[in-house]
Amino acid sequence: MTVNRLDVSGLLDTLETKLKQAIAERQLTDPLMIGIRTGGVWIAEKLYQRLAIKQPLGLLDISFYRDDFSQIGVNPNVKPSQLPAQVEGRNIILVDDVFYTGRTIRAALNEIFDYGRPRQVLLAVLIERDGKQMPISPDCVGISITLDAGQRIKLTGPEPLAIEIQTVDAAA
Prior knowledge:
The protein has helices spanning 8-26, 39-51, 69-72, 103-115; strands at residues 2-6, 32-36, 58-60, 91-99, 120-129, 140-145, 151-156, 162-167. By secondary structure, it is of the alpha/beta class. The protein has a 5-stranded parallel β-sheet with strand order 3-2-4-5-6. Helix 4 (103-115) links the parallel strand 4 and strand 5.
């Protein structure tokens, strides 16, 4: 197996810069930041500190909202979501680690809407990769990449936060 590491701090810097610009352009006042478990929470924790968001950080576990829930079953590590009681009319920054098909984001939006209808949702992801299946796209991206067959992204954390592109050798 071949492993290439990505510079997490550089990607976070890029994502932070793009988020600041998007927040200013959209005039988001007092936004609520929500991270999607698990990797999205790790990224959101870092951005939450950097952006000095005042509202408590929201945590979302979308396990029961996935469209493949009946196929994958219950994950024994399902944790409760932690969102404020008031989501209605709020500006939300939704954070995830990797945007791939869009299905995780669709599930996250479904859960958020169960709490109320936000004013707007700004989607921030550290990595956007090829494979989109849903009509959803991130607003702010740290890096966009295309993976070859046999490659996958592995995020480990929360401390130290690391990202690897792993390639399974065909001969192995």
